[in-house]
């Protein structure tokens, strides 16, 4: 089930959106203040963001730019939902990185159709990726962006999710830090190789709360998802 993040400071509109989206079968996460958006996106990993322009603390336009410049978040579809309906406003919103632009007052059926279109576009871009990967008792769902260990839901940040997805697609394969950097962060930004170790530790801690350690550390080489005894990377 897709999760839609509603970024809207007008409570009546937020409740209207929440009601209709959940009625249509979506899960929802609501945020009213601009300064809480990024942390909430990182925690909830929404499938799509409905983003108001006029927000307390920081504008939706600036948030859109920040999200698009964040390698962990940049692929999340964004629909600007705002009362600013002038042509130059729409150009500014789309130029900032919004995928779509809907003006208030809006039609619920039209908004739902636009949401479906944007979600379908993202889904087709990853159509060659399986919807679910399993290793032992670990299950990763690529569409819902969720991870389970047995019956337990594991909450991961976007970076940890992508690392696990890389590992679980090719279990037992050893990935060097450079390979992890290329697959998870891409070539567009500079990230210290040791950053990989930090995210591996976070991923390992989250997974190991509900079962044995399957992330193997091969010292001076890299990491793999393996059911052999995992080496302790605490000294790294």
* Strand order of the biggest β-sheet: 2-1-3-4-5
- State the secondary-structure class: alpha/beta
Strand content: 15-25%
**Could you report the average pLDDT, rounded to the nearest whole number?**
85
Low-confidence stretches are: 230-236
Report helical residue fraction.
25-40%
Number of domains: 2
Oligomer: single chain
Radius of gyration: 19 Å
The number of strands is 11
Fourth CATH level, the homologous superfamily of the largest domain: Response regulator
Instruction: Give the distance, in angstroms, between the N- and C-terminal Cα atoms.
Output: 38 Å
**Major sheet:** 5 strands, parallel
Shape: elongated
Question: DSSP helix count?
Answer: 8
Task: Return the CATH architecture of the largest domain.
Answer: 3-Layer(aba) Sandwich
CATH class of the largest domain: Alpha Beta
Identify the notable features of this structure and list them briefly.
236 residues, alpha/beta, Rossmann fold, Arc Repressor Mutant, subunit A, 2 domains, 5-stranded parallel β-sheet, 4-stranded antiparallel β-sheet, 8 helices, 19% strand
């Amino acid at each position: 089930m897709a999760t839609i993040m509603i970024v809207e400071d007008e409570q009546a509109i937020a409740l209207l959106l929440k009601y209709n989206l959940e009625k249509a079968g979506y899960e929802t996460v609501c945020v009213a203040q601009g300064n809480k958006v990024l942390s909430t996106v990182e925690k909830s990993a929404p499938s799509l963001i409905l983003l108001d322009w006029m927000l307390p603390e920081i504008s939706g336009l600036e948030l859109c730019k920040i999200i698009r410049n964040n390698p962990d978040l940049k692929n999340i579809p964004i629909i600007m939902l705002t009362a600013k309906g002038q042509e130059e406003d729409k150009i500014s919103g789309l130029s900032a990185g919004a995928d779509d632009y809907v003006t208030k007052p809006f039609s619920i059926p039209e908004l739902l159709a636009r949401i479906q279109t944007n979600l379908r576009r993202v889904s087709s871009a990853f159509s060659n990726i399986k919807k679910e990967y399993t290793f032992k008792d670990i299950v990763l769902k690529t569409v819902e962006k969720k991870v389970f260990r047995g019956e337990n839901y594991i909450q991961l940040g976007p970076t940890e999710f992508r690392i696990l997805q890389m590992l679980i697609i090719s279990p037992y394969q050893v990935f060097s830090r450079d390979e992890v950097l290329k697959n998870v962060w891409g070539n567009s930004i500079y990230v210290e190789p040791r950053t990989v170790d930090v995210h591996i530790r976070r991923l390992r801690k989250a997974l190991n709360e509900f079962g044995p350690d399957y992330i193997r550390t091969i010292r001076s080489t890299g990491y793999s998802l393996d059911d052999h005894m995992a080496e302790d990377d605490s000294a790294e």
